[in-house]
Structure formats: C-alpha cells, structure tokens
Amino acid sequence: MKNTENYIIRPGTNYSPNSGIFLNMDKNKIKEFYQWFMESLPYCIEELMQLIASTPGFEKWDADDSPNSLNDLGAWFATKVNKRDLTLKEIEVIKSKQVKPIDFATWDLTDETKSLALYVGMYYGEVAIRNNSLLKWNQLLSSRKLADYGQPVLDGVGIVPINPVRVAHSIAYGFIGNNTRDGMELRKAYDYWEKLVMPASRE
Questions:
Q1: pLDDT tens string 22-43
Q2: Which phi-psi region, left, alpha or beta, contains residue 202 (left: φ > 0; alpha: ψ -120 to 50)?
Q3: Which single residue of 16, 46, 50, 127 has CA 20 to 30 Å from 9?
Q4: 89-to-53, 94, 95, 107, 148 alpha-carbon distances in Å
Q5: What average pLDDT does the segment 57-78 reach?
Q6: Stretch 141-155: mean pLDDT, rounded?
Q7: What is the rounded CA–CA span in Å between residue 161 and residue 167?
Q8: Where are the beta strands (DSSP E) in 19-105?
Q9: What percent of the chain lies above the pLDDT cut of 90?
Q10: Which DSSP category does 5 fall into?
Q11: What is d(CA 151, CA 139) in angstroms, rounded to the nearest whole number?
Q12: Contact 128, 191 (CB under 8 A)
C-alpha cells in the first residue's frame, strides 16, 4: 500500500482541463490522448482507492460506485488540495496575454492536486455512468469552440455533456479560493447534475 505523503506523479496524470493545449493538438494526438485516458481510467481509480485507504480516518471508504461514496471521497479530497505560488515568469506570461490589465490569482493548484483531481473526476464519471444507463464517456470533437474540445466528457442522447475532471478541478479551486473545506461540494455537484440528467432518462 502506498503512503500518500510519498505520492509521485506519473507523466501525463496532471493535465488541466482549462489548458488550451487541446486546441493546438492535431486530431491524431487528440485521439491518442482519449485512448490514454480510457486505458488509464481503471488504473487511476485503483490508485485513488489505495491512496484513500492509506489515509488515517478514511481506511473504510468503499468505492462501490454509489452516489453516497462521493461524500467521503469529497471529504478526503478536501484534505489533499494544495496551492503553489506562480513564478515570476508565469505571471509575466499571463500579463503578456491580457488585452488590458485585469487582476488575477497569483497561485495555481499544485501538480499533485491536479493529478488527484484527475483521479477524482474519473471516479465521479464512473459513478454517474453506473447509475444512469444513458450516460457514457465520449470525446468532444465537433467544434474547437467548445470549452471541452478534445476532452473526455459524460455524454448521452438529450444530455448536456459534462467534464468530470473539470468538475473536480473547479471544486479544488473553490476549496482554496473560498477557503471552504467541508468536502460536500463533490456530492452537491453530482446531485445537481443528476436532476438535469434524470428527466431525460425517463423519456
């Protein structure tokens, strides 16, 4: 069992859904990314389970793909979210892209946090799929104007696609930006989206 404190990021496991890198990738690279995501998904979830099981107080977490399992997952995730200060170079790059001066946060999530957000997003997605037969993983390729272009999303007939990894990232930023750490944001996000999905499943 791995010790959470000795966690080492593997290459490619801390990508940011807010990155414009997908817009610059050719279709072959984008397809390779999606293939990597889907092939890595079960292993990343297994890694997540081991990390949680090795955390005092969360040893009994049951990854049973139920919505209730998101409660303790969110609470655990809240204890692992950390930030880092942007370097002067990073700040200058951001400023150089501004049309006019706008205040912005001078911090970002750590690579470790981004990696965990990927794992949490993957599990979140699997919970949604196991509890709604209309849902499946899909890759948005119809238009480069889409915010989630090239990224894995939950999709289905009559359903507005959602990016679970983006959900996890947004929650992580919220933990730090709002200084709130009750851990229920993940379950609340799921419950809110489920209300939008379930009417379609009854048609």
A1: 888 888 889 999 999 999 999 9
A2: alpha
A3: 127
A4: 38, 9, 10, 13, 27
A5: 96
A6: 90
A7: 12
A8: 83-85
A9: 54
A10: G
A11: 6
A12: no
